[in-house]
Design goal:
The structure is a single chain. By secondary structure, the chain is α/β, with parallel strands linked by helices. It has eight helices and seven strands. Strand 6, helix 7 and strand 7 form a beta-alpha-beta unit. Helix 4 crosses helix 5. It starts with 11 loop residues before the first strand and ends in a 9-residue tail after the last helix. The relative contact order is 0.17. The model has no long low-confidence stretch (mean pLDDT about 95).
Length: about 220
Amino acid sequence: MIETSTVVPVATERTRVRVPLRFADGYSTTADVVTFDGLVDGREHLLLGLGDWRAALDRAVDGGPAPLVRPHSECLTGDVFGSERCDCGPQLREAVERIADEGGFLLYLRQEGRGIGLYAKLDAYALQDSGLDTYEANVALGRGEDERDYTVAAQMLRAVGADRIRLLSNNPDKARQLEALGVAVAEQVRTGVHVSAANHRYLEAKRDHTAHTIDLSAA
């Protein structure tokens, strides 16, 4: 649990490189991809500056709208292989375009399976096939329902000068943790609802169990 008194260690930029991006549907844009020194968990997380992110930071300093930011947890099965058991791949695709249009940052966080890792996530899938929901499966494996800690997200945002953001997420825990870590969330912006026959129960569990702002009736 993140406490409001948490002191966030300083991280510094290590490398910044411009990378052209292209998605399977043909959408393309360019990102300034940043790596860091001093991240508390020692993992290789990335920040992608999208659109005119510098102007977005300048507007925020002048009291205007804060940059749009999505902390996106790595999902090999969804982001790379297009698995429909979750909505991660479509959320990533949506977020990149929306942030590129407005200026802001996508944080690509190495937190597979809500922090339990790739192999354990697939073990959890097997348990879900026997009837457990996504949270119950993690607990049955002896893990937390959601083990993600957003300290590294706060470190990266503060390293690039983004201490006030508009958060692109349906997950209220991301907003709570970032606020406790000193990043002001000026607004929480919902993502779209990316529902399929394979992920409907998964999305229901996120809505009902952890109060994700997902309106399945509109999907």
